[in-house]
Specification:
2 copies of one chain form a homodimer. With 315 residues, chain A is an alpha+beta fold. Helix content of chain A is 31%, strand content 27%. In chain A, 41% of the residues are buried. In chain A, helix 6 packs antiparallel against helix 8. The longest helix of chain A has 20 residues. Chains A and B meet through helix 5, helix 6 and strand 8 of A and helix 5, helix 6 and strand 8 of B. Strand 8 of chain A pairs antiparallel with strand 8 of chain B, so a sheet runs across the interface.
Chain lengths: 315, 315
């Protein structure tokens, strides 16, 4: 109900009486007053004058489960869990998906992660104001095709950032999103699978949204807020991403060409001289293409072409 | 301590006095008497005469955690959990491995499964007396290579059955073990992974060991006991399998040729006309080889060769 009260306050530029809100929602005035108190405690600046009523002056950048559920597209039919704080959205998503929750899909969003991790178990700074989300999906694919999902997620997040913020988001292989050559988002795709088929995929998206880049100094990264000079509507951005993934999922099994094409267009890796390092070896060459599985094709100085599936890229 | 008392009884053909056992183990005679009672309750037939002592007449086919731990090879350095009954050893193994247990390896063995499952979520009858085991390993491989682990497990289990029982175990693609054309074992390999690297593999082995084939009538399967006319030592067989897997694991990254060669030798699929059915399609042809990833190479009537990674085979 707190969100219903908030909706009414947001609709009006003028003050609204408690009696009016109570009547509209079919509850008592005391019940309305309690929700106003809860909103104030959550950081909403609400003025209240007797005979005049309540007026919303400023609102905090808070993720509301109810708001998110309302904004999510009809294509997404899963359960949503919206949290103020969690250790890691991917770990919680895996736990729930393994326990047969989140069928066929599910979404966890947190305002803050206390133990966020990226690829290779690297620490991922996840302060308040970011978009730390994990989407569980269960496409009927083989584990070999999971890399397609990872490349698809990179394309989709870049497209969503461009649409919502207008910022020039680009992809760095395999699935980092950069703005003006600085990392703004990392994607960690995990799976549970049998040898022949995927049981579920967890698409973890860590997006530096509404906090200052200085907050994560040392990570040579940027944020949407720092690049744009203002915050974006996180619910809108999350919903845009979820909507795109929901619509694009079937192309994992048929019609993947659009993703490969868009990946090429949005890539900052292709055409560049790269150094790729993995646990076993390092490789220098020119990134010339990605294949339909999301692997990078690198041309060595000898002219020989190598397909690279894993590793870090330095441009 | 119960197992120590049992060991002493097993060593002697004659009766052993309670006083002797108590002295050898450095415990009281009452403590010995209590363990004798526990052994009797577990199905051991132990005669006891005053002035003469205890004598083991017959022992049940019971899996003892202590015995298993003692028999496991030094190459296996993980925790062992031996259970009378469990829903599914693979499910428990995944739960423990996800919660960061079983590092780097771990083993679960149960005498009975109440909810055993095979590939494609099929019911797997798992009565008392079988070998229902799940081994957790963490090789440094890509998800693409998980099929190598599955093929390796099939070779190893066939080799272990041949060594321990002398029965002609053979492999039916992808990883069923047959004796005299009847299924005696199924292997279900599951994984948790990022796109680029496997976090852990769970090798689930369901082996129809020491029960009568009639027990699982309707599954068109056989058991070691029915084929051999007697039971085998399950601890010896489990230990043989775990030892072989522990030693062979490094060949996932280098030196896999032995497995491919042995797979070909032990296969009943190669050279046969096969029909392969999967969710999407059926395929008729002749199975001519497996590749280094464990995929089946099928030659169609047109002469065209297809690489098949998933599906059911009918010979």
């Amino acid at each position: 109900m707190i969100f219903d009260v908030l909706e009414i306050l947001k609709e009006k530029d003028t003050a609204v009486s408690g009696a009016h809100i109570a009547k509209e929602l079919g509850v008592s005035r005391t019940a309305v007053w309690k929700q106003i108190q809860r909103l104030r405690a959550a950081g909403y600046d609400i003025s209240g004058q007797s005979k005049v009523g309540y007026r919303l002056k400023t609102e905090p950048d808070k993720l509301w489960q109810e708001e998110l559920e309302k904004e999510l597209p009809p294509e997404f039919s899963g359960r949503v869990i919206c949290l103020d704080e969690v250790e890691s959205t991917n770990n919680l998503a895996k736990e729930l998906a393994a326990g047969s929750q989140f069928k066929p899909v599910g979404l966890i969003v947190a305002d803050k992660q206390t133990g966020g991790r990226g690829r290779f178990q690297r620490v991922w700074a996840s302060p308040k104001g970011g978009i730390w989300m994990s989407l569980v999906v269960r496409p009927d694919i083989s584990p070999v095709d999971a890399s397609k999902m990872a490349a698809m997620a990179a394309v989709i997040v870049a497209e969503a950032i461009i649409e919502i913020s207008g910022l020039p988001a680009r992809i760095k292989w395999p699935n980092d999103i950069l703005i003006n050559d600085k990392k703004v988002c990392g994607i960690l795709t995990e799976m549970a699978a049998e040898v022949e088929r995927v049981e579920y995929l967890v698409i973890g998206i860590g997006l530096n949204a509404n906090f200052d880049a200085e907050t994560i100094r040392g990570f040579s990264a940027t944020t949407i807020k720092s690049e744009l000079g203002r915050s974006v509507n996180r619910v809108e951005l999350i919903s845009n991403i979820v909507s795109r993934i929901s619509k694009e999922l079937p192309s994992l099994t048929s019609g993947y060409e659009r993703i490969t094409r868009r990946w090429r267009e949005l890539s900052i890796t292709l055409g560049k001289d790269v150094r790729i390092s993995s646990a076993e070896r390092a490789l220098n060459g020119r990134a010339v293409d990605i294949d339909s599985d999301g692997a990078l094709i690198v041309e060595l100085p000898s002219g020989e072409r190598r397909t690279v599936r894993a590793g870090d890229v330095a441009l």
